[in-house]
Amino acid sequence: MLEQMNWAVPSIGGIQRTTGIVAAIATAALAIFGSSAAAMSCAVGAALMIANLFLLTIVGRAIIALAQGGSANVAGIILAPMKLFLFVGVVYILIAYTHLNLAGFMLGVLTQIVAIFAETWHASARATLVHPEDQKA
What we know:
Structural class: mainly alpha
Strand content: under 5%
Number of domains: 1
Shape: flat
Low-confidence stretches: none
Radius of gyration: 19 Å
C-alpha cells in the first residue's frame, strides 16, 4: 500500500540547499561589512554543518538498515555517538589550532538552524498549496 507523501516535512536536500544559500549570503555580508577572517570562519562553520547533516543522513540510513535486517549490533548502536565525537574533535581542532574567528564561525553554524526554520516554513506553505482540502477551519 502506497502512503501519501507528507508535504509538510522539509527534505534534507532542501535544508542543505538553503543552508548553502544562507551561508553564502552571510559570508558575503561578513566579507563586505566585517573582516575576511570572519567571512572565512563563517564559511567553515557552514561547511561543517552541511557535512554534519550529510553524515547524519548516512548514519541514520545505516542504523535503519541494521535494524531492519534484524542484526542490530554494536556497530549500529555506536554509529551516531561516534559521528558526534568526530565532529566535536573537528571543531576543537579548528578552533584551537586554526584560530578561527569565533563570531564568524558561530554565524556559519547558525546558518543551518536558520535553514531548518526556513525550509519547515516553506514545506508547511507548500502543504497548504498541495492539499487545501485537508486544511479545516
